[in-house]
Amino acid sequence: MGELESPGIVDVFFDSYLSKRYTGFFGTIIKCLNAATAQPAERGVLPQLYAATASGVQGGQFFGPDGFMEISGNVTEVQAAPEAHDLAIARRLWNISEQLTGVAFLALDEASLGKTEG
Fold it and tell me: Are 38 and 97 in contact (CB under 8 A)?
């Protein structure tokens, strides 16, 4: 089973989309909220890099920012949402990924998800 990561809130969405769509008073409010909560892409990618390269990382661990509501901050191990451990959701994502990519991956089973039957 692989490890999971969350970048938190990254400000690239505002820069590339919201700033062009929303202007005036509402745009100013969004820009202020974004500045107060989002982190730059260079920091948002750190959980992924950590999970992929740090020694001692084990399958099933989840990494994200350590700040308020895991929105931004330094990389730390965090709790995954219950859906991240849901076998039915995992199977659906697996099947959709195979359909969209045209690549057949290794079989998805409970062992690969850290699950045991019983």
Answer: no
Is 80 buried (19+), middle (13-18) or exposed (0-12) by CB count in 10 A? middle
Q: Could you give the CA distance from residue 6 to residue 89 in angstroms, rounded to a whole number?
A: 18
**Would you kindly state where each structural domain of the chain is located, as residue ranges?**
1-80, 81-118
Q: Please list, in sequence order, all residues whose beta carbon lies within 8 angstroms of the beta carbon of residue 79, skipping any fewer than 6 positions away.
A: 62
User: What SS3 state is found at 49?
Assistant: helix
Whole-structure pTM over 0.70, yes or no? no
| CA–CA dist 115, 92 (Å, integer) | 16
Q: Which two tokens stand for residue 35?
A: 């500045």
Report whether 86 contacts 31 (CB < 8 A).
no
The answer to whether 108 and 94 have CB atoms below 8 angstroms apart is yes
> Using one digit for the tens of pLDDT, what is the confidence trace for 10-43?
777 666 677 778 788 888 888 888 777 888 888 8
Distance from C-alpha of 86 to C-alpha of 101, rounded to nearest angstrom:
22
